[in-house]
Each structure stands twice: as structure tokens, then as C-alpha cells.
Write a structure and sequence with these properties.
Layout lengths: L3 E4 L1 H13 L4 H13 L9 E2 L8 E4 L4 E10 L2 E11 H4 L1
């Protein structure tokens, strides 16, 4: 089931900042977002739910050390994905 991706302001800021430092990650991010939209639980993404202060959110891998934090939301009667932030493992957890 294809889901709409909603980019939060924090996600856009984090993506812009990350891509300024590492422009070579653009392809990895795009690939991960396409996979996430098509199937959030694609094995390549290693999607998992989070605990602690991020409980209720999910994370997926966008590459070796790239993580995308998101949550499932309702948008116009269908399920969508709210992209919260992205960055390295240490930055987002």
C-alpha cells in the first residue's frame, strides 16, 4: 500500500543540513523515501519501532549510518507517513 509522505519542518531542516555536509547521500535518502512510501516494512529499510522518549515513532535505515524517524498518521481518511527527522544514528537517538 503506497503511503503519502509528509515532511515536517524539522525533517526538511535536518535534510538540508545533512545534504550540505554530505551531498553524496542524496541518492540514498531518495531511495529510502521511495521504499518507505511503497512499503514501510521493506526488509532493506530495517524498520523498527522506538522506545523511550521516541515511543510511538518508528525508524528506518537510509544507508549505513543514516536513520529516518517517522510516524504513521491519518491524512484524508488514509494512512500516511509523517517524516520527523533524519541523521546519523547518534544524531537522531
Amino acid at each position: 500500500m503506497k503511503r503519502a509522505l509528509i515532511r515536517s519542518n524539522a525533517f526538511v531542516r535536518a535534510a538540508n543540513q545533512l545534504l550540505r555536509k554530505n551531498p553524496q547521500l542524496a541518492g540514498d535518502i531518495q531511495t529510502a523515501l521511495v521504499l518507505l512510501s511503497d512499503d514501510a516494512f521493506n526488509p532493506k529499510l530495517k524498520t523498527h519501532n522506538l522506545k523511550g522518549c521516541l515511543e510511538g515513532s518508528w525508524a528506518c535505515s537510509g544507508g549505513y549510518d543514516l536513520r529516518i524517524i517517522f510516524e504513521f498518521v491519518q491524512l484524508g481518511g488514509s494512512e500516511a507517513i509523517l517524516l520527523q527527522t533524519l541523521g546519523t544514528h547518534d544524531e537522531v537517538y
